[in-house]
Amino acid sequence: MRILLAGVSAVEEDSERGQFVKTVLVPIWRRNLDLVKQKETKLTFRFPRWGLTGLDAFFYSYLHNLSAKSVFHAVVQAEKEGFDAAMITCFSDPLLWDIRQAVNIPVVSIGESSMLLATVMGYKFGVVTISPYTIHGQEQTIAEYGLRDRSAGVRAVSESGDEQPMALVDARHAIESFKRVARELIADGAEVIIPGCGLMSPALRLAPGAEEEYPNGLTEVDGVPVADVMGETIKMAEMLVTLKRAGSCWISRKGLYAQATPRAKEFGQMVLKDDGPGFWDC
User: Measured between alpha carbons, how far is 49 from 249 in angstroms, rounded to an integer?
Assistant: First the structure.
């Protein structure tokens, strides 16, 4: 089984940030995913050369939305290359429903997958998000997913966009900050806490720099589970591929995920064209 993980932040492979991606981010993602994925599942991490270049830009919805086409083209290309599924690594699930219309391979994302599983783990979940500016967007997404009654709320950490990626190297400060926010959500009724970021979640799950105090990572706060966002999503992808291979129903093309007709695609040729600088894989 081959699964593509689509990154959302633009980075050049040979840049300083590219080195961080190759030596810090991808290794910690692999360690996180290796905890739960099937041994035969092969992962490829794909990063765009065009888009937003830092976490602060993702705090603002218009910038985030304008950059989302890179995720779309990464997944479309993955299907052409024979991948069995794609996983979007951003908690806001950019263009998730739209991409499902466009391709015939399973496409999952860390926001939707972790929230749906949280409703199995407990009655109400709370989301810890990356900025006060992303709270309203997360609340809107929760409503679109029909999960408003299962949400205890969304609260933000206080770290800046520059500080948060460094938790992948030393998670001690991030863990304490997360626990403070998680306790506020628990007081609001959350029975499961979801780290709402593809950087935050693996930093908590593996606790780099804090292994002595958290040898198994931060998996609970005061007895309330902390979701393994990356692990849960890769299992969702594997499950859908397995169902598809077995000939079982795995998606509906009746309404939400109805596919465009050839005529519609003809009229959409200009916007479907990928004229960006491309991607690189790790």
Answer: 36
| CA pair distance 70, 277, nearest whole angstrom | 10
How far apart, in whole angstroms, are the C-alpha atoms of residue 268 and residue 258? 16
What is the rounded CA–CA span in Å between residue 282 and residue 275?
A: 22
The pLDDT tens digits of the residues spanning 75-110 come to 999 999 999 999 999 999 999 999 999 999 999 999
Give the CA radius of gyration of the chain.
18
Query: Which CATH code for domain 112-228?
Result: 3.40.50.12500
pTM: 0.96
Instruction: Determine the CATH number of domain 2-110+232-281.
Output: 3.40.50.1860
Domain ranges of the chain: 2-110+232-281, 112-228
Length of the chain: 282
Structure tokens at 32: 């996180």
Quote the CA–CA distance of 234 and 39 in Å, as a whole number: 12
Instruction: Give, in degrees to the nearest 5, the angle at Cα 260 between 71 and 10.
Output: 10
- At residue 226 the predicted structure's pLDDT band, cuts being 50, 70 and 90, is very high
Q: How far apart, in whole angstroms, are the C-alpha atoms of residue 58 and residue 54?
A: 8
* CA–CA separation, 8 and 212 (whole Å): 32
| 112-228 and 2-110+232-281 share a CATH fold | yes
